[in-house]
Amino acid sequence: MASMTAEKIAGSVRERLGAKCLDCTVRNAKRVYIGVAPKDWPETAKYLCIDRKCRFNIASGYQTPGGFEVLYHFSFNEGDENGEGPRTGVVLSVRVKADGGENPVLPSVGKDIKAFNFIERELYDLLGIRFEGHPFPKPLLRAEDWPEDFFPLRRTEKRAELDYKAGCGTESGP
Question: CA-CA distance, 173 to 53, in Å (whole number)?
């Protein structure tokens, strides 16, 4: 069987998602980016993880001038529509823009696909993206002394001044 190319993967995802695929870009032979609306994210995740048997690698959240976004990264299998076959080496990244402005929210897929539980909790702790319907929305990384509205990876958070002399061996010791 011939190896599934990024173009073929992009085409099959576009065909399956239809109008739910807001955009689709093949960056190179190993990277495909698609965008979906928050309301379509759970169905997209189930299609990729359950139907296509893609491997969920990681998610990365970030803040842009227009709001908050999450990129979910998947390893794609070659083969039939059910994803049976060896890994292709192609990474499919799904971009989802969060609703809610300064109070970003996305639907949780952790209730249906356990692999998303920890990353959703981490994205809340660090960026404040709330995952509606998460089965266990308890802090994962938050320090006990952080204020409730403190999310350290937001661009709006003030950063403490670093003391570059501390611990660098520049001062004479005992």
Answer: 57
Instruction: Read off the CATH number of the domain in which 103 is found.
Output: 3.30.460.80
Mean pLDDT of 130-149: 91
Whether the predicted model's global pTM rises above the 0.85 cut? no
Per the domain annotation, does 76 fall within a domain? yes
Mark out the alpha helices in the chain (DSSP H runs). Answer: 6-17, 41-46, 117-127
- What are the DSSP E strand ranges found in the chain? 23-28, 31-36, 55-64, 67-77, 87-97, 105-107, 130-132
Distance CA 69, CA 108 (A): 14
Task: State the total domains in the chain.
Answer: 1
Domain contains 115: yes
Query: Could you tell me if residue 154 is inside a domain?
Result: no
Residue 109 near residue 41 (C-beta atoms within 8 A):
yes
Per-residue model confidence (pLDDT) at position 78: 64
